[in-house]
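Bug #77: duplicate submission created two jobs. Keeping one. Sequence:
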Amino acid sequence: MNEHLIIPENIKEILNSIENTPLSLTELPLQAHPRLPQFERHIRVLDIDAKSEQQFISFRYKQILKDKETGEEINISLPSPEWVIYKNTWSYLRDNYNNPIEFPLAEPKEDMPADKVKVQSYKYMLWLLKNNKTGFTELLASYLDEFVKNNKDILDKLS
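Kept job's structure:
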């Protein structure tokens, strides 16, 4: 495509990097599968369907196992429960170190003197991205952590 141009080596490296970019949106590491610890395990995010007016995000992904020595993908079908953030899904507001922000209750109770600040997940995700508070991959990694905690038993099943 650019054969008619004299392109410096540093720009050729960028062009090669662009050309070799995987088509998945991101691939994030997971803890080893409890019954297949000999493999590295990842979540590969393939698609995101975001509906702004409905405040709805659906992620299509698959679990990937790779040989620890060769990096070769192993063809074992693993479950992929629905990963959706709905309009009424809530997240904790987090500080710069990704820790939930907590404040004292207006009317403290003996068993609960403080609580974490909750925000609507869809709007929070948009705010984080639009205000350069996080990168796309970091945002997905943060929500993936919560998703994995909530779906660990399903994700760890073998078909």
